[in-house]
Amino acid sequence: MVNDKIGDQENLYRLTKKSQPKCWKNGKPMPAAFIDARGASVDRDYDRDEDQIIDKFTKRFEKRDEFGGLIKIGVVKCKEAQTCVKPLKTKSNDYHAEIHNSETEVEISLLKAKKLADFCNVVKGPYNENDLT
Q: H or E segment at 100?
């Protein structure tokens, strides 16, 4: 059973879709990768192996030809950007969480999204970097 408290040592993984080309520029994540009116949906690692996480995302989104890229960010870096990470399990995903602007605001502001984009690491780059400029 996955713990409802997200630890500072955890990493959060965010998928971008090919239908969201503004999430990448020259192979680097852009603030748009974190801006969503419903919150930035992520999967927490919760001590899972990164290869397992990559495989899950890849299989789920390559079927629909929507895998655009995968980025990760540490919970500590989210806090440094003054965002709020919330564990929000779903029926099909115990590891689901969201990054919100604050405890009461969902959509991440541009300034905070810029910080997150600067702090995150590319796990699996854009699907076709030449098309994503």
A: strand 96-100
Q: For residues 25 and 133, what is the distance between their CA atoms, to the nearest angstrom?
A: 5
**What pLDDT, on the 0 to 100 scale, is given for residue 64?**
67
Residue identified by tokens 């989210």 is 78
* Helix (DSSP H) and strand (DSSP E) numbers for the chain: 3, 8
86-119, pLDDT tens digit by residue?
Answer: 999 999 899 999 999 999 999 999 999 999 999 9
What is the residue whose two structure tokens read 């239908």? Answer: 19
d(CA 24, CA 132): 6
At position 66, the amino acid (one-letter code) is E
**Whole-model pTM?**
0.91
